[in-house]
Amino acid sequence: MKTFSIAIHGGAGTLIKGLMTQELEVQYKNALKRARDAGYEILKNGGTAIDAVEISVKLLEDSPLFNAGKGSVFTAEGTHEMDAAIMEGKNLEAGAVSLITGIKNPVSLARDVMEKSYHVFLAGDGAMNFAKDQNYDLEDPDYFYDEVRYKQWQGIKDSNSFQLDHSVKKDGKFGTVGAVACDHEGNIAAATSTGGMTNKKWGRVGDSPMIGAGNYANNKTCAVSCTGSGEFFIRGVVAYDVSCLMEYKGLSLEEASNEVINKRILEIKGDGGLIAVDANGNIAMPFNTEGMYRASKSSNGIETISIYKD
């Protein structure tokens, strides 16, 4: 049997160490552990990588600690607009949604787009109509209300400012969430979900739902989920860039991931990180911010849960 493994992230950039209380750190690590272990259990029982990444991301979406699902940030209009994507590496099937509201688990809707429509990417009213056709229940706005997120928004409301969670050096909560996995058959998958940026306007969409930018999977190379300054990750086509470096330059997963995060994205002044796995179960989790909420577990006995740089 091949090595199977999973890695998850809860966003690049963290509370600076002086503001991270021990109690809060425990909460984050417990949430990461629950999500990681749930995905790993699926792999351990012979399940697929696509099922593993979906369940891990759903659990992160259900936590108010992360900027996805329940913990999504407020837009300029005081609403929540969420994005998500999922992709499997065997047949390069993918699904994505953007600018959706009221959906408890956007990653599951993205998977339904992949499996139950002829399309890859649905957005806005169309995505919501599709959700209705799939009999999704819509949560009340109160479900997504979080006091810390609300205060973040109040600080810049009615201005032209917007706020990327991972670049704020004050008390707040962070992050796009994602998962990558390799199952016992060597198939890989990636999933990413986000609530975007605080006070965003004009239907802004980041890299998270964009196949090749914030999320990508190909059995020949790797599965990648990104987190960071979305505009730069879109311009750098980051997730696919890692895959390309492996496919065309013969770099290892570790080499390609580090090249993209610690060199190529920095050259265009982008910051953030990514998690990646290849078909041999190898894992890479580079970031160029102060920290990245992350965890991994592999059938070779290696497991991690980290926030700051080791």
Question: Within the CATH hierarchy, at the fold level, what is the topology?
Answer: Glutamine Phosphoribosylpyrophosphate, subunit 1, domain 1
Low-confidence stretches: 161-174
| % residues in beta strands | 15-25%
Mean pLDDT: 89
Reading side by side through the largest sheet, how are the strands ordered?
Answer: 4-3-2-6-5-1-11-12
| Tertiary shape | globular
Helix content class: 25-40%
In CATH, what is the homologous superfamily? (Glycosyl)asparaginase
Structural class: alpha+beta
CATH class: Alpha Beta
Q: Oligomeric status of the shown chains?
A: single chain
Q: Tell me the number of helical segments per DSSP (H or I, 4 or more residues long).
A: 8
Radius of gyration equals 17 Å
How far is the N terminus from the C terminus?
Answer: 31 Å
Keywords:
310 residues, alpha+beta, Glutamine Phosphoribosylpyrophosphate, subunit 1, domain 1, eight-stranded mixed β-sheet, four-stranded antiparallel β-sheet, 8 helices
Overview of the structural elements:
The protein is of the alpha+beta class and 310 residues long. The chain has a single domain (5-298), classed as Glutamine Phosphoribosylpyrophosphate, subunit 1, domain 1. It is 32% helix and 22% strand. It contains eight helices and twelve strands. The strands form two sheets. Strands 4-3-2-6-5-1-11-12 form an eight-stranded mixed sheet. A four-stranded antiparallel sheet has the order 7-8-9-10. A hairpin with a 5-residue loop joins strand 7 (215-217) and strand 8. The longest helix has 23 residues, at 22-44. It is globular. The model is unreliable at 161-174 (pLDDT under 50).
